[in-house]
Amino acid sequence: MSYKIGFGTDGWRGVIAGDYTFDNVRRAAQGFASYLLEQGRQGQWVVVGYDKRFHSENFAATAAEVLAGNGLNVYLTKGATPTPTIAYAVVNKKACGAVNITASHNPPTDNGFKVRDENGSAIDPEGLKRIEALIPDSVEETTHIELNDAMRDGKVIIFDASEAYFQNIQKLVDIQKIKDAGFTVVVDAMWGNGAGWFTRLLEGGKTKVIEIHNIRNPSFPEMKRPEPIRPNIDVGLQATVENNADVLLVTDGDADRCGIGDEKGEFINQLRVYALLAFYLLEVRGERGAIVKTLSTTTMLNKLGKLYDVPVYETGVGFKYVAPKMMETNALIGGEESGGYAFRGNVPEREASLRDCISWT
Hints:
The chain is of the alpha/beta class. 36% of the residues lie in helices and 18% in strands.
């Protein structure tokens, strides 16, 4: 009997060379391709991206081959790319969805397979169930085109998603103000996709960015896993104090979740950060709109909703619930207890770098 591929709160994850194999990635990609074809997406474009885990670029190429083999066209990211950047690329490129090869904050033994819709958003539970139902039982039931042939025929195009993403952030946030502020910022990229992104975003001013854990190392030294909580961030907190920095910014493996440390090397947990973000948008910026939170997220948000007379909607755990509610209500902000937050005016996807920039302006 074949291995059953199931999608949890945010896609399918498994142990590399155990249940997460090239054959099973092909099967998952076939299920997603069949789902898109059912929706009449024949000939449309799909974005495929990946993280810095073991073999992620090759798993991504495998997914691209299957999508191309099923009559879809693929924008394949040039390198490891943050999840929010992949989500924005879907909208920017007018694609019909995305595949993201990442296991986010899981241990180094794992990899994963996330899917997104035409809004760059997590697909709702009913859509995920349908994708699961369309996954074939064996790899022999999949269709693919070799990557070189697909690239030669223009069915797969390698592209850099960063420039459009940075341009979008600069429309939403006064980046120059942050550059001119003269901050010292320590960034812990947790060996993942966040490496280099804050440096690129903030270079050219008085603000100084110091990066740690910013090269590729799929074994994730000095931490149990690339998850922005203690004790994984203790090295970053220490580096903040040693460098007399103003703040520590931590991004998880695929850079869609974040952790924060203050100038004293104290961790500010994700629940407090969410409440502070909502307070900032409501009080300092004077914006109004719904707040979307998961059931396990802080009740400080409910108190803010009453104080500022804005609705607060609670959902199940996972952005597959948060994102649809955000779009339904045109929410000001949405988020969850793990440190993923999304904002009105951007794609309904967890965002790390935009969240950090908003909190400084």
